[in-house]
Write a structure and sequence with these properties.
- This protein has 393 residues and is an alpha+beta fold.
- Helices cover 32% and strands 35% of the residues.
- It is globular.
- Strand 9 and strand 10 form a beta hairpin.
- The protein folds into 3 domains: 4-231, no CATH class; 238-321, Alpha-Beta Plaits (2-Layer Sandwich); 323-381, no CATH class.
Length: 393
């Protein structure tokens, strides 16, 4: 994705109005944001901004002012009809989280009265601000969630509230202090917009902005900061991962293909076997599985269920992955997907998907090695080779 890089500092917490204020402070035009909000919920709210001080730090406060006395009650079903694009993706993630923690269907998740207007204005406003600022990629810090309890439409709940906890799965978080520091809308924005959790990346800074929350805590600034600029060359996406391992010496080897397939279905990103020699000269295998941190419980359970091991080792890992795109080519009237790995707009790797190659071989009645050669030739003819420009998606 082209454009400038945005880094969000949520180390003091995150809320929709705080992020919106920070983006306006960084230069996003208020009139463009108001126009986008008006196009979504006409005549419903006005966005006001004012300078404030939070623990001695100057910041911009964005206030969503209702213009209607009796706003309609909204569910995800009704919001989905008017909110699209990046804003729609944020609300979809928020609806999934609320549905999961309250045990209701996503369609029936309620966004309560004035709070619905606030959330729509915040989310649509943030999406419009990103477009106006030319933001092409986003990353964010660890998020402070808070502690204690908070009063909500569902009564008094522990902090972090259940929806925030659900949305924070797989993201680095901290307590950060008393009170509700991260709202469900703020956490949904982080998880939808940011591709990775990281400290301030290496970049050339163009501008920065600071958005204020409502409370002024004397011991720490209640703010969200954004830093916008040109990031260093993108050589791949960095992600947190967990490596799970188990040594197994008493499983019928005919079962291993099914075991690996089951682990992939359970959420593993990759799974493989390494032959080893254990004590007393016993031949065995080390089962190794790589997965997202959020998938660890399901994958661990699958290892215990599918193998005879009595223990699983776990270790945190950091992996870098190329951006990936699938481009179809046609060989003998059969479509074959070519997987492209690219960085900085240039193809680094290009290889036909082997399942498609196998289907091509069967269709044409030729050996798989011949089908692979033909697929590679088609990819080359289409310019899908290392060193060429990556296709625009």
């Amino acid at each position: 994705m082209s454009g400038r890089h945005l880094w969000i500092d949520a180390s003091a917490g995150i809320a929709g109005d705080m992020l919106l204020g920070a983006l306006i402070d960084a230069g996003a035009p208020l009139d463009a944001i108001q126009t986008a909000v008006d196009a979504t919920i006409p005549g419903s709210v006005r966005i006001d901004v004012r300078e404030v001080s939070r623990a001695g730090l100057r910041a911009l406060k964005a206030d969503v002012v209702p213009l209607v006395d009796d706003p309609p009650h909204r569910t995800w079903r009704s919001i989905r009809a008017v909110v699209t694009g990046r804003a729609g993706e944020v609300f979809a993630r928020l609806a999934r989280a609320e549905a999961a923690v309250h045990g209701v269907a996503e369609e029936d998740v309620h966004f309560h009265e004035v709070g619905a207007l606030d959330s729509i204005a915040d989310v649509v406003g943030v999406a419009a601000a990103l477009d106006a600022l030319g933001v092409g990629s986003v990353s964010a810090s660890a998020v402070a969630l808070g502690s204690g309890t908070a009063r909500t439409a569902h009564g008094r709940l522990p902090v972090p509230v259940p929806a925030v906890t659900e949305l924070a799965r797989g993201w680095q978080v901290s307590g950060g202090g008393p009170g509700e520091l991260a709202t469900p809308t703020g956490m949904a924005l982080i998880r939808t917009l940011a591709s990775r959790c990281e400290s301030l990346p290496s970049m050339t800074i163009d501008t920065a902005g600071t958005g204020a929350g409502t409370r002024d805590n004397p011991d720490r600034p209640n703010v969200v900061r954004v830093v916008l600029g040109a990031a260093e060359a993108d050589h791949g996406r960095q992600e947190d991962a967990v490596l799970l391992e188990a040594n197994v010496d008493d499983l019928d080897p005919r079962l291993w293909p099914g075991v690996l397939a089951s682990l992939l279905r359970a959420g593993a990103a990759d799974a493989w076997l390494v032959p080893i020699l254990m004590k007393k000269g016993r031949p065995a295998h080390t089962l190794t599985v790589l997965c997202d941190p959020a998938a660890v419980p399901a994958v661990r359970d699958a290892i215990f269920q599918e193998t005879s091991t009595l223990g699983v080792r776990e270790a945190a890992r950091r992996k870098t992955t190329l951006k990936r795109t699938f481009v179809p080519v046609t060989v003998g009237g059969v479509t074959v997907a070519v997987k492209i790995g690219h960085a900085n707009g240039v193809i680094v790797q290009a290889m036909p998907e082997f399942s498609d190659v196998a289907a091509l071989a069967e269709k044409l009645g030729v050996p798989e090695r011949v089908a692979l050669t033909r697929a590679l030739a088609a990819a080359t003819e289409a310019g899908l080779i290392p060193g060429e420009s990556a296709p625009v998606q």
